[in-house]
Amino acid sequence: MKQFDNTPKELPKYCSKEEIEVVIDKANHDTGKHGRRNHLILTVLWQTGMRAEEITNLRKKDIQTDTIIIRGGKGGKDRVIPIKNDLRTSLLLYGEQRNGDEQIFPLSTRQIRNIVYHYSELHPHTFRHSFAVHCLKSGMNIRTLQKILGHSGLNTTQVYLDLSGVDINDEYKKVNW
After folding, report:
1. Which tens digit of pLDDT belongs to each residue from 100-110?
2. Of these residues, 37, 128, 129, 134, which one is catalytic?
3. What is the domain-level CATH number for residue 155?
4. Which residues contact 84 (CB under 8 A, 6 or more apart)?
5. Is 160 one of the annotated active-site residues of the chain?
6. Cα angle for residues 80, 132, 85 (degrees, 5° grid)
């Protein structure tokens, strides 16, 4: 007979939209040399769910009209991520100011991590988890989220359904008895 492991798995840490916005706002008010770049990187992490490594590989040609093309993401897979027009414009403007450099953010994943740590105690992947939970709470179809995140199986994406279950009490209170 097959045994099942009933040990609860540790759920990924995530932040609310408001908590993420506080971090991004700190970067927005950073008047230092790299404040604008850092704000843009944090915004990309939040609004796309991209991995830090994917941001380091982002090229101007990958930014399309309403999508970002991830080339050779985790597992060597390509995928498409929808983006808002204002983020697209900001990325292209920032990229144009890079003196013809094709790479938008010529940084290492360690540098991306340090940028996030500069404004918070979060890990860059926490932005990805927060993105996923926020998308599901906003009503996004889980299959769509799976494609955006680049998960090969739906079971990997389903962990975020459990995460949003942390708010069970809030949801229960919405029921009119």
Report:
1. 668 999 999 99
2. 128
3. 1.10.443.10
4. 47
5. yes
6. 50
